[in-house]
Amino acid sequence: MLFSRDDVATVINSQFEAVWESVRPVPIVRIDFGNGTLLTRTLHGNIATYVCAADGQVLDILAGIYTPAVYMAQLQQFRLLANYAEQEGKEKRGLRLREYHQGQADALAKNEPAAVLVNQAFMSKRAIEGGIKAVLVPGTMVKHVRPSLVSNKKPTDERLEPAEDLANWKLLAEDTRINESVRREQIHSLLASKGAVQPERIVKWLYKDVLHADLDDPYLGLGSTLFANYPFKDQ
Question: Any idea where the domains of the chain sit in the sequence?
Answer without folding.
Answer: 2-227
